[in-house]
């Protein structure tokens, strides 16, 4: 039988075909580049507060470079975290598949590493060129941390090289050392992120609580306060000051820095941003890896490849879910700390300038949860014996969709209603649906979504298995009761939240809801593990038999994560409004205005297109190299035969 | 009896949800929901239906079967022709509905809440940082209940002499002048108003009124007078005490943080 030959893509012939147009295009690109740079070169090179970036403006240039750097950075910091865990699992279970997958993850990371560094360099150049005074101020405060950053960066680079290139060499008895390198890589990566987070969080919240200040800083702050108010006594200056009072780290009149480097690093929002980003990196890294696997699944020619990339996509999505579930809690903590630092900033975020952004955020997180559940449910289709759980699916879809609807219902409807609709409602708030706009309703909804997603995962885990434990009936009743009573408790707490003072709701009731959800996940997982410990397999997972639709969902999840990160970056940075350093250094550049949400969405869309183009190119390069390697191996083996 | 196809069931669910939101919630249970919100909810319902039908291949095929039959089968020719006629009519009706609408001005595009300044002032006097200023009479609630009661009573007097014309005698934003104002006066009985703001924020809104609202987020079009021109500082603090005492809602306070 004649084998059907697939036409092969010959790069050389393609290059020859496009040689002439490329040669014509090159001078044109060069001309455009020179034209773009000319105004910049023509500027006064003497000391300036701001220098405009040609064509797109300084803010947009810094915005695009910073967000791209952050997206790549998030990927290369997130992937090693789970790669090392997967490698460890492979080592312990002696299953080579895990080791191969972890290595594949790190290969993706290697491709993105240099681009991250390159984008970091571009960002620094833009900032130094366009915002020299701001950079001078920040480097004056954070100089020592910048040196530390460079040391860490070298540490991370060489550890990554050793970890990646030493993978095949450090097998067998050296595996422990290789895993140690992986852990070290994560330590360096996390430390790098924490250091750079300190700079940007300081711009947002240049203050810390009185109780955390050193004696010298307390004294400097008191002296500066007394010098600003000549008639004031020391006792008057200290009136109402407790350990929790937020103290600015600058002289409020002159802007002079009063504190130590550590106090600037450990500013009000530093740790919440660190935690939020750490978890976010895992979720983002998982989703990008899953999207890569989905793409490879869709183009795979053999059953083996399909099975491998199906498994890889599942693992990526599982990791993304592990990150996604605690992410809203970390975000809530960050939001709370922003309110605590400055109430005006908090109101701007949730009730004023940026409030509609959080409706978009709700829509996107809704897409993430619906998508992640959809993928899990689709995955159950390839497991024999999973059909018994299908009957619960419509109810779970209904619960998730109702919760997403609550989460995305705006509090104030004036912007999206006609005047007659407003009159019919009796104001900008709907008397009943308006309650969904309050945080107590939204927190309740998100906790229920998380529990439902966990239930989906539980069903997935159980699919194709039959428990042999004698107490399986009691176990199932216990698990069902835990789910039921915890859901009721979360809803009751949510309803009570409407009636209590906000401080009590924020600091007591909402944390209780979170604790209940977390406790359910821990308790049910423990019970389930013991119940299914000696389970018999009633069906196998047919890896590779996933629908193409489910793979597109994985790609959609990666796109949603990326755009969500872009939009939240706009919120985090935009909260400062017309300040480079909030309350200390004012932005007097022509860009000192908060861009409209529509403008922000456009910029984020551009960033997303560039990001996926770059990621696609890096992945394609990896694929190309892999193909070349496979061809060489094939030719060599043919020669041997 | 012939079983309904999955497609028909989904169609019934979709139409049923729309009827529920538009007429049952919008007219029977509550007041009408804005069209944009209904559209948002209906979008979610479409997503839910799509998720349900497309998770399994067999279900997806079952859903598509009537569509496929209508387009291909010879015995469905009549149905095909009816649909071919109905589509242009539906488009015509939609176009007509857009153009036949009576002039209906859009709602107020202002932000939910104005962005407060960093400093709280009364006339030209700086009281302090918005974050830190507290109601000077609030501590009487614990320290001297009689004095607190007197301040609340004074607040009640100030409210019914000045505020109730717009904000209503039950503080629900339904005063005599309210129907003629756009935006409508604040409804203090709403759980999203008083509990979300510090007393300093309320002081700022009362003292500066509509003209004192920030440049960002305009147009505000608020009819609220500049009360610092007519009331003393103490009267404003008293009326804030009255608002929370009457409604039972405590203004926003902040705990220890971290």
Molecular shape of chain B: elongated
Reading the helices and strands of chain A in chain order gives: HHHHHHEHHEHHHHHHHHHEHHEHEEH
Give me the secondary-structure category of chain B.
mainly alpha
Bin the helical content of chain B.
40-55%
Q: Count the domains of chain B.
A: 2
Strand order of the largest sheet of chain A: 1-2
Q: How many strand segments of chain B?
A: 2
Number of helices of chain B: 8
Radius of gyration of chain B: 28 Å
Uncertain runs of chain B: none
Description:
The complex is a heterodimer of chains A (641) and B (258). Chain A is mainly alpha-helical and 641 residues long. Among the domains of chain A are: 214-265, no CATH class; 383-540, no CATH class. Chain A is 72% helix and 2% strand. Chain A contains 21 helices and six strands. Chain A has helices spanning 11-17, 19-41, 58-93, 96-130, 132-165, 175-204, 215-228, 234-237, 261-265, 270-299, 303-324, 327-341, 343-350, 355-380, 393-407, 419-425, 439-462, 472-496, 502-531, 548-574, 597-640; strands at 207-209, 246-248, 465-466, 536-537, 579-581, 585-586. A two-stranded antiparallel ribbon of chain A has the order 1-2. Chain A has a two-stranded antiparallel sheet with strand order 3-4. Chain A has a two-stranded antiparallel sheet with strand order 5-6. In chain A, helix 3 packs across helix 10 and helix 10 packs antiparallel against helix 20 (548-574). Chain B is mainly alpha-helical. Chain B has two domains: 6-99, no CATH class; 119-247, Orthogonal Bundle (Cytochrome Bc1 Complex, Chain D, domain 2). The interface between A and B is large, with 76 and 66 residues.
């Amino acid at each position: 039988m004649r084998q059907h030959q697939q036409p092969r893509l010959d790069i050389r012939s393609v290059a020859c075909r496009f040689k002439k147009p490329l040669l014509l295009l090159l001078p044109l690109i060069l001309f455009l580049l020179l034209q773009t740079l000319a105004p910049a070169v023509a500027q006064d090179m003497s000391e300036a507060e701001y220098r405009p970036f040609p064509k797109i403006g300084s803010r947009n240039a810094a915005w695009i470079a910073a967000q791209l750097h952050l997206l790549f950075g998030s990927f290369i910091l997130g992937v090693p975290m789970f790669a090392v865990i997967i490698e460890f699992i492979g080592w312990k279970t002696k299953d080579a598949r895990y080791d191969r997958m972890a290595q594949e993850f790190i290969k993706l990371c290697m491709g993105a590493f240099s681009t991250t560094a390159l984008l970091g360099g571009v960002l620094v150049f833009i900032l130094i060129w366009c915002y020299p005074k701001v950079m001078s101020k920040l480097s004056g405060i954070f100089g020592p941390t910048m040196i530390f950053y460079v040391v860490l960066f070298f540490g991370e680079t060489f550890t990554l090289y050793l970890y990646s290139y030493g993978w095949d060499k450090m097998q067998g008895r050296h595996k422990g050392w290789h895993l140690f390198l992986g852990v070290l890589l994560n330590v360096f990566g996390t430390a790098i992120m924490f250091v750079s987070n300190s700079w940007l969080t300081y711009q947002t919240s240049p203050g810390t609580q009185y109780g955390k200040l050193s004696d010298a800083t307390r004294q400097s702050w008191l002296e500066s306060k007394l010098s600003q108010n000549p008639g004031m006594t020391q006792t008057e200056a200290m009136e109402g000051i407790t350990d929790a009072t937020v103290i600015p780290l600058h002289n409020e009149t002159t802007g002079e820095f009063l504190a130590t480097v550590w106090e600037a690093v450990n500013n009000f929002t530093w740790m919440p941003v660190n935690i939020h980003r750490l978890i976010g990196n895992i979720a983002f890294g998982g989703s990008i890896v899953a999207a890569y696997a989905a793409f490879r699944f869709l183009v795979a020619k053999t059953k083996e490849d399909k099975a491998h990339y199906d498994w890889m996509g599942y693992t990526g999505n599982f990791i993304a879910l592990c990150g996604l579930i605690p992410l809203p809690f970390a975000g809530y903590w960050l939001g709370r700390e922003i309110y605590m630092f400055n109430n005006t900033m908090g109101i701007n975020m949730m009730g004023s300038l940026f409030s509609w952004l959080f409706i978009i955020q709700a829509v996107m997180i809704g897409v993430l949860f619906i998508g992640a559940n959809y993928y899990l449910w689709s995955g159950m289709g390839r497991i024999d014996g999973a059909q018994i759980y299908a009957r619960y699916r419509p109810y779970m879809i209904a619960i998730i969709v109702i919760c997403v609807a609550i989460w995305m219902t705006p509090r104030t409807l004036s912007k999206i209603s006609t005047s007659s609709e407003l009159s019919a409602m009796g104001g900008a708030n709907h008397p009943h649906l308006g309650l969904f706009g309050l945080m107590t309703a939204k927190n309740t909804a998100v906790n229920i979504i998380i529990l439902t997603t966990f239930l989906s995962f539980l069903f997935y885990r159980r699919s194709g298995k039959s428990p042999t434990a004698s107490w399986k009936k009691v176990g199932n009743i216990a698990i069902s009761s835990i789910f039921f009573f915890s859901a009721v408790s979360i809803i009751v707490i949510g309803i009570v939240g409407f009636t209590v003072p906000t401080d009590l709701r924020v600091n007591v009731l909402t944390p209780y809801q979170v604790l209940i959800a977390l406790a359910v996940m821990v308790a049910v997982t423990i019970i389930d593990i013991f119940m299914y410990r000696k389970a018999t397999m009633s069906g196998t997972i047919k890896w590779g038999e996933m629908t193409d639709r489910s793979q597109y969902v994985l790609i959609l999840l990666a796109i949603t994560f990326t755009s969500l990160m872009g939009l939240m970056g706009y919120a985090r940075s935009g909260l400062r409004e017309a300040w480079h350093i909030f309350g200390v250094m004012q932005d007097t550049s022509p860009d000192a205005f908060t861009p409209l949400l529509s403008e922000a969405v456009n910029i984020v869309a551009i960033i997303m297109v560039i990001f996926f183009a770059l990621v696609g190119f890096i992945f394609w390069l990896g694929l190309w190299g892999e193909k070349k390697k496979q061809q060489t191996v094939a030719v060599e083996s043919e020669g041997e035969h | 009896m012939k079983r309904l196809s999955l497609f028909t069931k989904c169609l019934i669910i979709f139409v049923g949800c729309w009827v529920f939101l538009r007429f049952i919630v919008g007219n029977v249970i509550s007041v009408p929901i804005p069209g944009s919100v209904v559209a948002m909810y209906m979008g979610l319902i479409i997503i839910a239906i799509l998720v349900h039908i497309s998770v399994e291949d067999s279900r997806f095929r079952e859903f598509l079967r009537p569509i496929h039959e209508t387009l291909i089968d010879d015995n469905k020719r009549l149905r095909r022709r009816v649909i071919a006629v109905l589509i242009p009519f539906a488009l015509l009706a939609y176009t007509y509905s857009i153009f036949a609408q009576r002039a209906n001005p859009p709602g107020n595009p202002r932000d939910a809440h104005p962005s407060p300044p960093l400093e709280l002032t009364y006339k030209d006097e700086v009281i302090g940082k918005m974050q830190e200023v507290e109601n000077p009479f609030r501590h009487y609630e614990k320290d001297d209940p009689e004095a607190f009661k007197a301040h609340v009573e004074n607040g009640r007097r100030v409210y019914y002499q000045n505020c109730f014309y717009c904000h209503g005698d039950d503080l629900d934003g339904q005063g005599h002048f309210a129907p003629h104002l756009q935006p409508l006066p604040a409804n203090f009985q709403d759980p999203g108003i008083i509990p979300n703001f510090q007393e300093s924020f309320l002081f700022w809104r009362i003292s500066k009124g509509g003209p004192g609202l920030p440049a960002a987020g305009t147009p505000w079009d608020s009819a609220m007078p500049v009360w610092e021109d007519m009331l003393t500082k103490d009267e404003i603090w008293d009326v804030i005490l009255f608002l929370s005492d009457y409604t039972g809602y405590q203004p926003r306070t902040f705990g220890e943080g971290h």
